[in-house]
Amino acid sequence: MRAITRGIVIAGAAIGAALGGAGTCVAEPAVPSGTYQGTTTAPAGELIWKGKTFQGDTVVNNFAFGLTGLAGTTSQDGNGNTVIDYSPSGLGFLTDRISPNADGSYTGAVYVGGNQVGSFGLSR
Q1: Strand blocks (E) in the chain
Q2: Residue 108: exposed, middle, or buried by beta-carbon count in 10 A (0-12, 13-18, 19+)?
Q3: Other CB atoms within 10 A of residue 49 CB
């Protein structure tokens, strides 16, 4: 019975995808939920910025002294990269693009108005 139910769910997801997203399918987040330690190319940036915490399709940045802020929402682009939109924090001109590495870490780039201004790394 379990195999039949699973087959129906998978078939429903495939049909929903074929119909342009009709149906209900919950995708795994591009970056698994949790806190990731950060490194950055910004001069002295690691003194202030410590990494990011992901929860589903939301993210917050972690700063020195346990402060958090600069919330964003995540989505996936067509290449399997995670895109962070900081519009929820009032910074619609700011985005991050994160690519997964084979070792489970991530490499990211910061964009202001579509122009790359820095890069960072994330690891558990």
Answers
A1: 34-40, 49-55, 58-63, 68-76, 82-85, 94-100, 106-112, 115-123
A2: buried
A3: 18
Residue 90: partners with Cβ closer than 8 Å, 6 or more residues away: none
- B/e letters for 78-88, b = 16+ CB within 10 Å, e = fewer, are eeebbbbbbee
**pLDDT tens-digit profile of 77-88?**
998 899 999 999
- Give the C-alpha separation, 54 to 72, whole Å: 10
State the burial class of residue 109 (Cβ atoms within 10 Å of its Cβ: 0-12, 13-18, 19+).
middle
Tokens of 42: 């910004």
Residue type, 53: T
What lies within 8 Å, CB to CB, of 23 at 6+ separation is: 12, 13, 15, 16
pLDDT at position 30: 76
- Kindly state the tokens that stand for 119: 């890069």
CB 61 within 8 A of CB 52: yes
